[in-house]
Amino acid sequence: MPEILKGLWITIQATFYGSLVSFALGLVWAMALRSRSRWVTWPVSIFVEFIRNTPLLVQLFFLFFVLPGWGLTFAPLTTGVIGLGLHYSTYTSEVYRAGIDGVPPGQWEAATALNLPRRRTWTAVILPQAFRRVVPALGNYVIAMFKDTPLLAGITVADMLFQANSISATTFDYLEPITVVGILFVVISYPTSLLLRALERRLVR
Amino acid sequence: MTGALWELFFEGLWITVQLMVYSAALAAAVAFGIGLARTSRFRTVRFLSGVYVEFFRGTSALVLMFWLFFALPLLGWQLVGIWAGTLALGLSYGAYGSEVVRGALQAVAPAQREAAIALSFTPGQRLRKVILPQAVPEMMPPFNNLLIELLKGTALASLLSIGELTFQAKLARLSTGQSAEIYGIILVLYFAVAFVMTRIMRVLERRAKASVGRAVPKGEGWFSRKLPVEKQGPEALATGGKP
């Protein structure tokens, strides 16, 4: 049990840092996809679709085995965070897109009428309005990511599943550790999703 | 890359496709079963199916797979790897799919239901002849997304030593050490399967829409996964396409 709780802490760290990476990168993709130049939108959309349509586990393996070959050696957890963040950024970019599309066109026009430079239009007009609508949906991806962290066990991150496996390997008791891990996931993700639903009712009317 | 290596990959690809087809069939059955149960008249049925959905959506598919493969034998059932994988994927993606089914059933205009009652259809006829034909086209785009998620989920089965694509890649890497090439190739293979599946689902979506006399929007891009929708509602925003 203490080992599994240690694993839970790693799981939570991976989810937290992975979320930060995916929130930031997702916004970058979403804004790049609204660029007026095809030279920006094409490569980004191909990249995003490629990442979305291929398994996270394989992407993690790719990073884990290939990055050291390129001279980039990271701790497994860091590699995991990069993988999770990159994978989920392609989902969060869709969320941002929907949030940005939800800002009334009049706001863009007003910014043009006020002769605001493009950067000010984004930071002072569009993004503050988009963020409010986007928070609950981003939260859903945090839960999804939390449930995907066991994949990190595949690249030797000592998360909950990894700990459960190593307990099982020494005690030959597979039932209890894995059951505990499964229940911990439900116990954490269900109340969080209830919380998000409440938040959603508040923010998105 | 030698020919033998490619053979290994295509063997793996075939098992991946099998795994996807079996678990998609199971997931579809679960989705319709649970989705219908969630709109039942009886409170107990609604409650129990709700518990199922929250439980399987709440836990991690990989942990479920491990549980079925490693823990279940201690309770007396030993599953072959591919069935443990199919069961885990089918049960958890079925739970996501049931939400799609429920949403689509509830989106059918209430007047349609009333009209069917007025024509004194039995509940079974109402469902078969009036509700489902209108609900199914609504379900297609989210099902398309789920199918891709499911395809990606099959990679998890490699951790149970099932010889599907990801597992074969692992073997190939161990024997040749060319990580970048091997994982690059199988990422492209997964993408190719996903691409083909989206195209097939889009054809089905068009057919389903046409069969209830709805206009099919034109002008979708090759890289977008859905037919364009006229307007995104707040629900679409909330889930962002992924369960």
From TrEMBL, chain A:
<dbReference type="InterPro" id="IPR043429">
    <property type="entry name" value="ArtM/GltK/GlnP/TcyL/YhdX-like"/>
</dbReference>
<feature type="domain" description="ABC transmembrane type-1">
    <location>
        <begin position="8"/>
        <end position="196"/>
    </location>
</feature>
<keyword id="KW-1133">Transmembrane helix</keyword>
<dbReference type="InterPro" id="IPR010065">
    <property type="entry name" value="AA_ABC_transptr_permease_3TM"/>
</dbReference>
<keyword id="KW-1003">Cell membrane</keyword>
<comment type="similarity">
    <text>Belongs to the binding-protein-dependent transport system permease family.</text>
</comment>
<keyword id="KW-0029">Amino-acid transport</keyword>
<dbReference type="Pfam" id="PF00528">
    <property type="entry name" value="BPD_transp_1"/>
</dbReference>
<dbReference type="InterPro" id="IPR000515">
    <property type="entry name" value="MetI-like"/>
</dbReference>
<dbReference type="InterPro" id="IPR014341">
    <property type="entry name" value="Ectoine_EhuD"/>
</dbReference>
<keyword id="KW-0472">Membrane</keyword>
<feature type="transmembrane region" description="Helical">
    <location>
        <begin position="178"/>
        <end position="199"/>
    </location>
</feature>
<keyword id="KW-0812">Transmembrane</keyword>
<feature type="transmembrane region" description="Helical">
    <location>
        <begin position="54"/>
        <end position="75"/>
    </location>
</feature>
<keyword id="KW-0813">Transport</keyword>
<feature type="transmembrane region" description="Helical">
    <location>
        <begin position="12"/>
        <end position="33"/>
    </location>
</feature>
<protein>
    <submittedName>
        <fullName>Ectoine/hydroxyectoine ABC transporter permease subunit EhuD</fullName>
    </submittedName>
</protein>
<dbReference type="InterPro" id="IPR035906">
    <property type="entry name" value="MetI-like_sf"/>
</dbReference>
TrEMBL record, chain B:
<dbReference type="InterPro" id="IPR035906">
    <property type="entry name" value="MetI-like_sf"/>
</dbReference>
<feature type="transmembrane region" description="Helical">
    <location>
        <begin position="143"/>
        <end position="162"/>
    </location>
</feature>
<feature type="transmembrane region" description="Helical">
    <location>
        <begin position="12"/>
        <end position="37"/>
    </location>
</feature>
<dbReference type="InterPro" id="IPR010065">
    <property type="entry name" value="AA_ABC_transptr_permease_3TM"/>
</dbReference>
<dbReference type="InterPro" id="IPR043429">
    <property type="entry name" value="ArtM/GltK/GlnP/TcyL/YhdX-like"/>
</dbReference>
<comment type="similarity">
    <text>Belongs to the binding-protein-dependent transport system permease family.</text>
</comment>
<keyword id="KW-0812">Transmembrane</keyword>
<keyword id="KW-1133">Transmembrane helix</keyword>
<dbReference type="GO" id="GO:0043190">
    <property type="term" value="C:ATP-binding cassette (ABC) transporter complex"/>
</dbReference>
<feature type="transmembrane region" description="Helical">
    <location>
        <begin position="49"/>
        <end position="70"/>
    </location>
</feature>
<feature type="transmembrane region" description="Helical">
    <location>
        <begin position="76"/>
        <end position="96"/>
    </location>
</feature>
<dbReference type="GO" id="GO:0006865">
    <property type="term" value="P:amino acid transport"/>
</dbReference>
<keyword id="KW-1003">Cell membrane</keyword>
<keyword id="KW-0472">Membrane</keyword>
<keyword id="KW-0029">Amino-acid transport</keyword>
<dbReference type="GO" id="GO:0022857">
    <property type="term" value="F:transmembrane transporter activity"/>
</dbReference>
<dbReference type="InterPro" id="IPR000515">
    <property type="entry name" value="MetI-like"/>
</dbReference>
<protein>
    <submittedName>
        <fullName>Ectoine/hydroxyectoine ABC transporter permease subunit EhuC</fullName>
    </submittedName>
</protein>
<dbReference type="Pfam" id="PF00528">
    <property type="entry name" value="BPD_transp_1"/>
</dbReference>
<keyword id="KW-0813">Transport</keyword>
<feature type="domain" description="ABC transmembrane type-1">
    <location>
        <begin position="13"/>
        <end position="201"/>
    </location>
</feature>
<dbReference type="InterPro" id="IPR014342">
    <property type="entry name" value="Ectoine_EhuC"/>
</dbReference>
